[in-house]
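User: Hi! I'm working on a homework problem where we have to compare a predicted structure to a textbook description. Could you give me the structure for the chain below?
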Amino acid sequence: MRLLPALVILALASPSLAGEVEVRLRRVDDLKAVAATVESEHEAAARARLGGTVTDLATDEGQRVEAGQRLATVADTKLAPQIGGAEARIKSLEAERDLARTEFQRSAELFEKGAGTKMRLDAARTRLEVAERAIAAARSERTVLTERSGEGAVLAPANGRVLKVHVTEGSVVLPGDVVATIAVENYALRLALPERHARFIKVGDTVLVGPRALGMADQPPRTGVVRKVYPRIENGRVTADVTVDGLGDFFVGERIPVHVSTGSRDAFVLPRDAISRRLGLDVVRLKSGGEVVVQTGQITADGVEILSGLRDGDVVTW
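Assistant: Happy to help. Predicted structure tokens:
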């Protein structure tokens, strides 16, 4: 197993336990090696809010982005003429308003001198109010068009890393089209166990995570915690998510060796320092003065499992 050299290094790095120990049966976890994949707990889609042409693509696969960061710009060529038309309409309405204001002032002066009628004054006032309200409506339409042009910026919906960019510069997109897929920063190890082991795994269990396949093979293993066990068994396997610190530096989809407990059994466990290596054999020294050859098994958190060569009650010294 690829995880075994790293486990041996961890055991060698433990404090030396010089002395003696009496061999007794104890319960140890029966570890099973499985391959887990690094998965993003959530994937967010950065979508275009405006239909048009991608004029500026400011992101690429693998880039880390923050929520609200601009990823691309979508330009609608029809908006600029519409905004220009709205500006011209506002200027035309402003000219009509100025004319209506002049007419109203003249009507008011004539009415004060007794040369004008109340009906003419009210009609001039109404025309002025209509012109002002028409200008307000035109300005609102221009504001809507300006806001729509601002919606051409495609923003990152959350902090994370860009998994895939679905467009290139010059691509034509519609409102709602996905421009980029982002893996949200919360990563987890997703493992699949045979269904016969489903009864052994539960939330809160500790698992041993080996070195990454794309990194240094002699990296010490890390401890992970089962965060979620999915209630559905698919293709004869139960799926679980494991939380491990530092997964943000891994590739999404990268395979990592993991050791999980699939039960427990009785076994002899000795400190690593009690076992010496001679001529390719593992040897331990008994308190009685003799030496015996032993067969070692899996590495545990506090020693090495002894499969054969010792009996219950033997005293080992080193």
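For your comparison, note the following. The two ends are 28 Å apart (CA to CA). Confidence is low (pLDDT under 50) at residues 1-17. Good luck with the assignment!
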